[in-house]
Amino acid sequence: MDKKTIKDIEVNGKKVFIRVDFNVPFDENLNITNDTRIRATLPTLNYLLDHGAAVIIACHIGRPTETREPQFSTKHVVGRLSELLGKDVKWAADCVGEVAEKAAADLKPGEVLLLENLRYHKEEKKNDPAFAKQLASLADVAVDDAFGVSHRAHASNVGIASELETVAGFLMEKEINYIGKTLEAPQRPFVGIIGGAKVSDKIGVISNMIDKVDTIIIGGGMAHTFDAAKGLPVGKSLCEKDKFDLARELLKKAEEKGVKVVLPLDLTIADDFSATANTKIVDVDKVPEDWEALDSGPKTSEAYVEALKGAKTVIWNGPMGVFEFDAFAKGTLAVAKAVAEATENGAISIVGGGDSIAALKKTGLADKISHISTGGGATLEFLEGKVLPGIAAIADK
Ligand code: AMP
């Protein structure tokens, strides 16, 4: 179902409450070290301001306890946000109550107010209805641009929707369009690539992918659990023995659905988990007992590249090896290149969840991807096919 966005409503002269994800990293002097998340919301914020809204921004930073640790105050974001918007940002020392109500009431069209950390109130994460009502009382309409918290039902994204019409901002719209619509009606062939450390983290994603894709590439640490479940030697490689039955079930499901599974043919193995370990390339049935696989091998990369040829939709989650060490980043790089090439040839490519963005950034090919999803846990749950409460709360068109 299509969701309403800020373009579907009148915002001129309205007080607009917007939930964003400004949970940015800080150094020890409380300087922002990476402002990507703030920049990502600028199209939505600028649109609202240009269209005559008075913009009331709500967000959380870190994991404050009831003592309201000052390092988690949103006031540390005011300076950067003002710079990026090119205008003064007012700040309220609380997100509800008298201070917030007065600041919101005084706010004029074209002005911006940043509220104090939502999570200074435990009611936010509890989705407390009275707290949601207090937030809602500040504004005429609500906008949700915080995809990263969509898998959680909190007061500022879900509770508030019972009080105020809630529509999607541009960031949220992009996530829904790319991931939601791609999973609903993918162009084929559709190739899923699942890597990363553990099968147990991604059971839901693998299972849902098998329901949708034509081909699934399983790589990275989790491939060894599948290999071991098939009776192959994996040495000291990452392996979850308690997931063998599940791995076999997933392979059976793929077979029944006619989904092609691409597992490693050869591996780059190491005698130690370190950047400077001795390494060898061996076929997947020749891993010695005291060695561990930390990357795919060249034959495997070739098979991955082959599987991605002609793909029209690609969803990629998780690296193909321990990409943090250059010696074990080759498999991930090969996949990134193949996904970039498929994209150049017209495929829609989506990368996200867990460590995928860091892995992709290391390959230098991030700008060749159609969509890099901004949410960690939210992206994984979306890829699992779950209904995300934050998205469900947004008004339908
Ligand atoms: P995830 O957050 O689930 O995407 O997992 C990412 C992590 O998986 C990265 O830190 C990688 O170093 C790790 N990883 C990938 N392949 C392997 C492997 N063969 N052995 C151990 N760790 C791996």
Q: What can you see in these coordinates?
A:
The protein is an alpha/beta fold and 397 residues long. The protein has two domains: 6-171, Rossmann fold (3-Layer(aba) Sandwich); 178-383, 3-Layer(aba) Sandwich (Rossmann fold). The protein is built from 14 helices and 15 strands. It has helices spanning 36-50, 75-85, 97-106, 122-125, 129-136, 170-184, 203-212, 223-229, 244-257, 298-308, 330-344, 356-363, 377-383, 389-392, and strands at residues 15-19, 54-58, 89-92, 112-115, 141-144, 166-168, 190-194, 215-218, 260-262, 266-270, 279-283, 292-296, 313-317, 348-351, 371-372. It has a six-stranded parallel β-sheet with strand order 3-4-2-1-5-6, sandwiched between helices. It has a six-stranded parallel β-sheet with strand order 9-8-7-13-14-15, with helices on both faces. Strands 11-10-12 form a three-stranded antiparallel β-sheet. Helix 11 links the parallel strand 13 and strand 14 (348-351). The longest helix is centred in the N-terminal third of the chain and has 15 residues, at 36-50. 49% of the residues are buried. Bound molecules: adenosine monophosphate (AMP).
Short description:
By secondary structure, this protein is α/β, with parallel strands linked by helices. It has helices at 36-50, 75-85, 97-106, 122-125, 129-136, 170-184, 203-212, 223-229, 244-257, 298-308, 330-344, 356-363, 377-383, 389-392, and strands at residues 15-19, 54-58, 89-92, 112-115, 141-144, 166-168, 190-194, 215-218, 260-262, 266-270, 279-283, 292-296, 313-317, 348-351, 371-372. The strands form three sheets. A six-stranded parallel sheet has the order 3-4-2-1-5-6, sandwiched between helices.
